[in-house]
From TrEMBL:
GO terms for molecular function: DNA binding; DNA-binding transcription factor activity. Gene3D superfamilies: GntR ligand-binding domain-like (1.20.120.530), Winged helix-like DNA-binding domain superfamily/Winged helix DNA-binding domain (1.10.10.10). The keyword Protein biosynthesis does not apply. Transmembrane segments: none annotated. Residues 4-71 form the HTH gntR-type domain. InterPro entries: GntR_C, TF_FadR/GntR_C, Tscrpt_reg_HTH_GntR, WH-like_DNA-bd_sf, WH_DNA-bd_sf. Signal peptide: none annotated. This is GntR family transcriptional regulator. It comes from the Bacteria. Keywords: DNA-binding, Transcription, Transcription regulation.
Length: 222
């Protein structure tokens, strides 16, 4: 059990480092450095790397070494497409099932998001952006679907993280859209919920070129 826990701890830590570009796309990975950095033994580290390799987040090149995979924009686009198709009906269910307590939780997430913008806390903002959607799925009693989407959205998450580093794109638009979406769900305005859901997803498509131009070496070639 202890070995399994260490392997999962190593996996989650390295995966986050990849998402946050702390392990930059294309950079070389050293088992030994990871062992020292995480204070975890060789076997759990290697098992974690196997899991990450199976998810195509790292790749091994014979006689060269192990490297962080570059961001696959096609994989990110497929994750976005899947999420858009599933999220619209789920947000409508969220609107129908939302209790006053659920509303307070979502409003609190948005207040914290506003604070994260004020303090320029990028990791907190990133977490709260996902927390808003995760909570909507929970209210709709579809948490399992959220977990499934999350498992296939790592390249999309990597893209979204880089987006937060581009000053021109700002963070306020995300908060504004979440606030408007929440109000539409409270008002049971399902047409508006559907429109806002689609617009929110397409924002990422609109911003794709900004991110790729800012980080050209971080993406797989088309």
């Amino acid at each position: 059990m202890a070995g399994t826990n260490l392997q999962q701890q190593a996996y989650e830590t390295i995966r986050k480092q990849i998402i946050y570009s702390e392990l930059a796309p294309g950079s070389r990975i050293s088992d030994k450095v990871l062992e020292e950095q995480l204070a975890i033994g060789r076997t759990p580290i290697r098992e974690a790397l196997i899991q990450l390799r199976n998810q195509e987040l790292i790749k091994t090149i014979p006689q060269s070494g192990t490297f962080v995979s570059k961001i696959d924009i096609r994989s990110a686009s497929l994750a976005l497409y899947t999420r858009e198709k599933l999220e619209n009906p789920i947000l409508q269910e969220c609107s129908a099932k939302m209790t006053p307590q659920d509303q307070l939780i979502l409003e609190d997430i948005l207040e914290q998001t506003d604070h994260a913008i004020t303090t320029q806390d990028k990791k907190l903002f990133f977490y709260l952006d996902k927390a808003f959607h995760r909570t909507c799925y929970k209210v709709a009693e579809k948490s399992e679907i959220w977990n499934w989407i999350e498992s296939y959205s790592t390249h999309l998450d990597r893209f979204r993280w880089l987006r937060l580093s581009i000053t021109e794109l700002g963070w306020g638009r995300v908060l504004d859209e979440h606030q408007t979406l929440l109000q539409s769900m409270i008002d049971h305005n399902l047409d508006e919920v559907s429109f806002l859901c689609s617009m929110h997803m397409h924002m990422i498509i609109e911003e794709q070129e900004y991110v790729r131009q800012a980080y050209p070496d971080y993406f797989e070639k088309d």
